[in-house]
Amino acid sequence: MRGIRLALVAAVAVGLFVVALTYLGETRNGSISGTVVDAAGLPVADVIVIASRDGDEMGRATTLGTGSVGFFALDDLPTPDTYTVEFSRAGFLNETRRVTLAQASDVTDVNPKLNPVTSTISGTVADAAGLPLADVNVVASRAGAEVDRTTSLRTGSVGFFSLDGLATPGTYAVEFSKAGLLSETRSVTLGQAGNVTGLNPRLNPVASTISGTVADANGVPLADVTVIAARDGVEAGRTTSLTSGSVGFFAFAGLPTPGTYAVEFSKAGFLSETRSVTLGPSGNVTDLNPRLNPVTSAISGLVTEDARKVPGCGPRECALGVVQVTITDSLGAQVRSTSTSSFPPQQEGRYSMAGIPAGEYTATFTKPGYVTETIRFVLGADQQRALDARLRAELGSVAGNAENCAEVELLFRDGTQFEPPSITRVRGDGGYQFARVETRGEYVILFRGPTGSVEGFYDIDVRAGEKLTGIDGACTFTGPR
Question: Which of 270, 364, 383, 480 is 20 to 30 A from 263, alpha carbon to alpha carbon?
Fold first, then answer.
């Protein structure tokens, strides 16, 4: 029995040894190879390729960067077995393949496609005041080549934009542009699988200029003209035209464009004028040259004379026709001239002058036989002003003979005496004279004898500046013969 057992043990041992020898004699390692490409099918260099089994790394390779770019080979892998092959490279999503190697076999067609790691750049575009801007063009470029574009939203989250699917890591130039606004470019660096969500640029308006020269109706430049530019009823700028150098010149700079502006010109004594000016995205208007017409006013009035009569002049009395009325400005230049009416009777003494610009003036009233009258006045814009005048005539005289009279007295027609009384003595030759008589006047001449009694009278009308002679009277002779 013992011999039989020993024989069996020996036989099993010999069999196992034979099997082991047979196995070791036929063992050969295998390999995994292929080419890694990107999503567009282009070979990718420097991809790390790792083969692992049960979590243990069994082989590592890197895809070629020259020659057969993207090719890799994992050699000396024990067979038969199944391996996990992982492909990784910065900027790409990792890719994993399961590859089974048969006994002493090679797998040569492992050709994975790696998709890039993508990220997002987003934010909200606003204007200089912080108000969201719709329809802004947003373009992302990398290494000078455009990779994505979009426009900011016009509804919902107005001004919001999102650039998606951007390969990472990488640095992008993100440009924001919209008509009428200055373009802006931001540099954004994306890390591995990183998003930028707070890119919120503010775009400043493209600034333009409106300029020109303001002049009057004759083309003479006007200083101190107030110039206001408004947009949509809101004042956008205010200035005044120059008073020295380039007199009348004005300019607005930094006006947002595009846009339409109402430019108003105003100055005391002139009619205001408003011009509509449209500025393009980056255009200037340099020839806005308005001419302002003067605001014209009018004066009118009644000229009467300061007649020396009792009672005084009634409502329709003492009007003075054919009086020359001249208007001069503050520099003495004549502006208007006319004369008072003498016909029809209801218009006698009246005058009117229109079309006079607002300003400071002097009115001069002249008529032969009358003292010239001047009145200074200020005429407002679009004013209808009444300017009356009363002229006093030049002094006249009354002379004559008063035979046998002692004195002659001058009284008003109604018998009222002057204050003080106007009495003159009769000269030895019988003549008399009142040398300074106020005119125009209605008077009575009284002739008094030596006893002071009135022995005669004479009604006289003395016209303006008139020198009356031959107003004679006589008294009773009471002396010796």
Answer: 383
Rg of the Cα trace of the chain? 59
DSSP string, 119-186: EEEEEE-EETTS-B-SS-EEEEEETTEEEEEEE--SSSSTTEEEEEEEESSEEEEEEEE-TTB--EEE
Task: Select 396-474's CATH number: 1.20.1050.10, 2.60.40.10, 3.30.70.330, 3.10.310.10.
Answer: 2.60.40.10
pLDDT in tens, 137-166: 999 999 999 999 999 999 999 999 999 988
pLDDT top residue among 19 and 236: 236
Tell me the average pLDDT across 90-112. 92
**Secondary structure letter of residue 20 according to DSSP:** H
CATH code that applies to domain 296-391:
2.60.40.10
Supply the DSSP string of 221-290, one letter for each residue: B-SS-EEEEEETTEEEEEEE--SSSSTTEEEEEEEEESEEEEEEEE-TTB--EEEEEEE-TT--B-----
The whole-angstrom separation of Cα 252 and Cα 211 is: 6
Percent of the chain residues topping a pLDDT of 70: 93
pLDDT tens-digit map of 29-39: 999 999 999 98
Per-residue model confidence as pLDDT tens digits over 195-208: 899 999 998 877 78
Q: What is the pLDDT of residue 261?
A: 94
Classify residue 52 by its DSSP letter.
E
- Tokens 């009619």 -> residue: 271
The architecture of the domain spanning 30-114 is Sandwich (2.60)
Residue 17, helix vs strand vs coil = helix
Domain boundaries, the chain: 30-114, 118-203, 207-292, 296-391, 396-474
CATH topology of domain 207-292: Immunoglobulin-like (2.60.40)
